[in-house]
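User: My advisor, Dr. K., asked me to get a structural model of this assembly before our group meeting. I'm new to this, so sorry if the format is off. These are the inputs:
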Amino acid sequence: MGDLDQLNATGERLHRELLGGDALAFSKIAELFLPPLVGALSRKFHNLSDPHLPNHAVADALLTYLAAPQKFDPTRGKLFTYLWVAAHSDLLNHIEAERKHTSRKTNEKVVELRPVHAVNEKEGEQDPEKELLLAEQSSLIQLKINDIVSDESDRKVVELMLDGVRETAAYAEILAVSDKPSAEQKALVKRAKDRIKIALQRGLRPRESK
Amino acid sequence: MTMHPNPMSGNEELVRRLKGNPDFVAYVLGRYQEQEGISDENLPAVLGTLPELVSRLALCRKPDADAANFATSVREIADYTLVDELLLADVIRQVSSLEALSKSSQHGFLAAARDRDNDVGPENEPSPPTEHPEGRK
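Assistant: The format is fine. Below is the predicted structure of the whole assembly, which you can bring to the meeting.
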């Protein structure tokens, strides 16, 4: 399975989790899709009057999806495409409204306005789905954490936590406690997570000046 | 130029808009900041996590403080955002209880106002302001 397929499969899984009431699902969906969608829209509409418009459009698309996630049918398409279409239309509508407003303001002087697409869209635009791959760059968060957490297995534990992995077994394997009874594994994993969080809190605390 | 978006960039607007949605942690954090007088800049330090992870936290669905699975949900969110789970549970509980208290005192105030209105029968109704014999000036 390619990276793109994998990311789209992740989108579908997260959609199911959202429908199931998972507390982390929307956060994960926003984190996965918002940056590439904003990036793709910003590139496609490169000379907008307000550079924040792509962000507004994507936020609108995500919140509309959140309000009625059941409207998205995974059998008919991918979540990324669904959000892309919503954000893209929203942005086009906004540009069109702005164009009409400008046209009204300048109607005493005949100005030939080019169509919305011609004004704003970049030629030879990239496939927006390719943007998904850009979001897979090494995480800034992980880099910041690596500054504080030096132990390799602790770093792997943090990575799992940040990925939202819940299964004790995955942590137990990293901590080399898989052979312990289940209850003990749980306790040891919890202790390790708590220890790492405390280390992070200490590491993030601003150093007091003498 | 190829732009490499920050994986967390742009979430601020979503967080801001979800501050009005009581189903999300964004709302809880906003209320907590108001109650405790914590600025946006200081919030990551108070929660003991990275600013990027505060946005991530804000976009999580708020666990119901009265639900049986509250502790589990808080633990999952706390792990995902590297926040201390006891602190997160306290924040959610504090906001929920203060809101419930505010609602009940508001309810009590309204009930008291209703009772007072009911006590005022026609014979007890305050008489209309006596017209000044000289009329209005």
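One thing worth pointing out at the meeting: Chain A touches chain B through 46 residues (CB under 8 Å).

User: Perfect, thanks a lot.
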